[in-house]
Amino acid sequence: MQQAEQILHQYFGYQTFRHVQKQVIENVLHKKDTLCVMPTGGGKSLCYQIPALVRDGLTIVISPLISLMKDQVDMLRANGIHSAFINSTLTFSEVDAIMEQVRMNAIKLLYIAPERLENQSFCTELAQLNVSLIAIDEAHCISQWGHDFRPSYRSIQKIFTLWPKKPTVIALTATATPNVREDICNLLQIDSDSVFVSGFNRDNLSFKVLVGENKDQYIKQYIKNNPQEAGIIYAATRKSVEALHAMLLQKGVAVAKYHGGMYEEDRNYEQNRFLNDEAQVMVATNAFGMGINKTNVRFVIHYQMPRNIESYYQEAGRAGRDGVESECILLYSSSDEQTHRFLIDQSQDPTRIPIELQKLQQMIDYCHTEKCLQSYMVNYFGEQEIQDCGKCGNCADERPKQDVTEDAQKVLSCVIRMGQTYGKTLTSQVLAGARNKKVEAFQHLSTYGILKPLSAKAVANFIDFLISERLLLVKAGQYPTIFVSQEGKEVLLGKKSVFRRTIVEKTVEKIQNDPLFEQLRIKRKQISELEGVPPFVVFSDKTLRDMCEKMPMNEEEFLAVSGVGQNKLEKYGEHFIAIIKAFV
């Protein structure tokens, strides 16, 4: 570990490992197959990059996305580490040149896509190499319980037999529930004592769910208040992406777009504009972002609710990868639920529909819970609930809760009188006293119209709240039905009270920057353009902010800045020290 710590400081500019990083690296250096579950921005990459530099031989990194490979290799090369990638963007001659370097031991880390392992001639070449470590990134893709299962990941297991002695394997992911972790371990034969789970809590992120918001107006105002900050806006459909992009373009915002209906060349162009800070905002479907290593994303706004907590955690987690305070905002509408149910029902694999519907319900519950949002997600991934984060939309809402026990009893009673075999929509219409053919059969019930002052939509929102509180449960299916839980029965019997806040206040935050930070950011942009790499490859926002705090005046002080290693000191130190001296 002493050598590992020297490499950490020399190449990456950090003084110490984080607790779980150290445990994972020690396990890998002892040649034990390992599963590392660590949130986005938690430092997963170092868990295989450091062992790759300590150990002899080649490290193969299996990664699902081209953009991730390029970013990782750019950052490693910027730190003076010999690495390369092989994917579909390269010509045959370029691949041959890289493999020649690999054979000459001139490359320490080689990134490949899982599909490459289906090529028999490539596997034959691998069998001739001294491979000491195999890193499987986005390892949840190997599990049928994962939110992003990919059949190509199943071929990974075949390569373990290429060598007389199996290389050490490390699997890494940011999103793995207990079921997914167990599945990964079974498939890759990883012992339970070699599973390391870092806290899912992201201290630098503040989460917020806004219900009933004018979405377009909110987004325009938010970007107006934060004109210098990079952000991602996720929308569920290509049509929504195009409409949002056109709206922001008309407002003069430097905006890019990304979705599966665009030509690959256009997608790459738009992505690079965003990575290079030429576009402030990226509007995209979930096709964008997995593996994007842009560290200075200050906000992620979801225009619609994602399909599951894993997707939301992963997409929102693209904010604040550098550890700087950032925002994650979800603009919820009840229509989002119907959109996702339709898409799930169209799934080509019907065996996955029940799993997807259960995940969707947990996402809906997140949007209606009044508990700490960080705590909700941490609990979802199998960790004990943390103390309230104190800054998410729910924790920051200081208004007193209202006693809604009587209204809750009316809803629960109505569900029982309807036989507990109907869905939320019809139940809310009965409670609100709607007059249509479907409701006619229930007009004789004593609970018909019992919440008449409220609209059916408001009652449906209240039912969603009761579901999130586990007073009502959902029986999944093409037409989900609701029934009263044991806790709900206690409310009906008067043994338990129910409290609820009104809709969360609508606020648009403004992020502040200081003048020195802006000057350093301009210099970073100039250098990145000269070198042909994204600005965050030069230095992250966190490193620039640490410069502002420490105000280094010489090389020794500059080397003490977080994220500054020897290689970056020699390349950039003079430029940034000069700016800091002039500022003082």
List keywords for this structure.
584 residues, alpha/beta, Rossmann fold, Arc Repressor Mutant, subunit A, 24 helices, 43% helix
Please explain how this structure is put together:
Residues 25-194 form the Helicase ATP-binding domain. It comes from Ureibacillus xyleni. Residues 510-584 form the HRDC domain. It catalyses: Couples ATP hydrolysis with the unwinding of duplex DNA by translocating in the 3'-5' direction. GO terms for molecular function: 3'-5' DNA helicase activity; ATP binding; DNA binding; four-way junction helicase activity; hydrolase activity; metal ion binding. The chain has 584 residues and is of the alpha/beta class. The chain folds into four domains: 2-197, Rossmann fold; 205-380, Rossmann fold (3-Layer(aba) Sandwich); 402-500, Orthogonal Bundle (Arc Repressor Mutant, subunit A); 515-583, HRDC domain (DNA polymerase, domain 1, Orthogonal Bundle). The protein is built from 24 helices and 17 strands. The strands form four sheets. It has a seven-stranded parallel β-sheet with strand order 3-4-2-5-6-1-7, sandwiched between helices. A six-stranded parallel β-sheet has the order 8-13-12-9-11-10. A two-stranded antiparallel ribbon has the order 14-17. The longest helix is centred in the last third of the chain and has 18 residues, at 566-583. Residues 503-507 have low confidence and may be disordered.
